[in-house]
Amino acid sequence: MFRRIYFLLPNAKLAQKVVDELVGLNVSHKNIHTYAEHKLPIASLNPATENQTHNEAREIEKLFWNGNLLLFFIFSGIATLALIFQQYSLALLSLAVMLVSFTAGDFFVKHIPHIHLENFKNATSHNELLMMIDVPAEKVGYIENTIHRHHPAAVEGGSSWAIKSIDI
What is the pTM of this model? Predict the structure, then answer.
């Protein structure tokens, strides 16, 4: 799984310099996308894809999160009914499912980075460019440090998960 790194940039000229440096760091040009509101010109930069601009990742996260909560509460009800009717093995099974559901939710909240396009709406509405760079997880720190050190005007916006095979 890839990580998507976000940077806010004041203009397309600086964005092109950042892209050139990223390509020099062996980041594929096709893994670098730029989002701009108000039909701002982004020159020869890769525009954000349809899935990136519609924030499909957020919708997937929401679906899994709500499904996990629903699963937890359904099995909570089953466990309660099982205890009322003295079906202890069913109650234990339900509690086990609830524990797995809780653990999955806890893991998601603590370990899966989730920054989304709407986190940058204020900046992009003021004509800043949002650059999204997809890199392997182990390169995130190196890329962020390098870009920030060489281009101080590039503001780090965090990182999120990305799945390249389905363009999310």
Answer: 0.82
